[in-house]
């Protein structure tokens, strides 16, 4: 699967990561609404699909990176009896505040916690978690390879990384329709509702230029993961990536 070369409209520079998490803070009050609206609620379906890729054992301790308002952690907790606890980290404090309130309302705040943290410097010791997840966040990380190695570090032996991320459809006709929506419609609607059109132009640029499919799998393998695979969703609009840590670490408790 060959990834596309950036088009001319994608040549503007990607903002530094401090600007990125501040941008997410600015749109935090409309983030969940826009996710549902702009994806036609497919983001909810995709997160529930991640449950199917959890390891086949009980009492799983999960770390969710770039957790935002905690949607993926909530989906895992509500749809799997195998998840015992979860921690979500993010740099956008306003997103975390909204997420903590969601957890309280759902009475999930005893099993799930959210805290400020960096996906490139995960604030936990090695061999701590059974599962590390990240949804629609890996492309926002400044150093992807460093973040993947951090995920590997904090996973226990036989632990699993699960990454849900946007990708591009392989079908040319569907891709053309999708890119027209992504480039012309999504930024306008997102900007109008959130009051920040910059955020949704940024989304468009990062999705179109980020590696996906086999190319991203090679990054996972370079970080040390085994049994790496990917599963396209909804004609390839999004993809779930899976990789396992094999043969290292006895595990810490949190």
Query: Number of folding domains?
Result: 1
How many helices? The count is 9
Gap from first CA to last CA? 39 Å
**CATH topology description:** Rossmann fold
The overall pLDDT, averaged over residues, is 89
CATH evolutionary superfamily: Vaccinia Virus protein VP39
SSE order, as H and E?
HHHEHEHEEHEHHHEE
Bin the strand percentage. Answer: 15-25%
Name of the level-1 CATH class: Alpha Beta
Instruction: Supply the helix-strand structural class.
Output: alpha/beta
How would you summarize the topology of this molecule?
Elements: H1 17-26, H2 28-38, H3 42-50, E1 60-65, H4 71-79, E2 83-90, H5 93-105, E3 112-116, E4 129-135, H6 144-154, E5 155-166, H7 172-194, H8 197-209, H9 214-222, E6 226-233, E7 238-244
Parallel strand pairs: 1-2, 1-4, 2-3, 4-5
Antiparallel strand pairs: 5-7, 6-7
């Amino acid at each position: 699967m060959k990834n596309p070369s950036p088009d001319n409209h994608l040549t503007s520079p990607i903002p530094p990561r401090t600007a990125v998490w501040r941008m997410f803070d600015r749109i935090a009050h409309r983030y969940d609404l826009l996710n549902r609206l702009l994806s036609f609620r497919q983001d909810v379906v995709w997160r529930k699909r991640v449950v199917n890729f959890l390891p086949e054992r009980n009492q799983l301790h999960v770390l969710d990176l770039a957790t935002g308002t905690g949607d993926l952690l909530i989906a895992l907790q509500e749809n799997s009896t195998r998840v015992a606890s979860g921690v979500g980290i993010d740099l956008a404090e306003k997103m975390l505040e909204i997420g903590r309130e969601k957890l309280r309302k759902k009475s999930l705040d005893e099993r799930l916690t959210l805290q400020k943290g960096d996906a490139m410097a995960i604030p936990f010791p090695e061999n701590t978690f059974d599962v590390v997840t990240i949804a629609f966040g890996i492309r926002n990380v400044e150093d992807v390879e460093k973040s993947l190695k951090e995920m590997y570090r904090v996973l226990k032996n036989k632990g699993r990384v699960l990454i849900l991320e946007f990708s591009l459809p392989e079908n040319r006709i569907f891709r053309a329709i999708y890119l027209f929506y992504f480039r012309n419609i999504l930024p306008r609607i997102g900007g109008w509702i959130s009051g920040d059109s910059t955020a949704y132009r940024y989304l468009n640029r990062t999705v179109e230029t980020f590696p996906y499919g086999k190319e991203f799998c090679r990054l996972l393998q370079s970080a040390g993961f085994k049994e790496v695979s990917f599963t396209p969703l909804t004609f390839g609009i999004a993809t779930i990536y899976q990789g396992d840590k094999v043969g290292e670490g006895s595990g810490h408790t949190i």
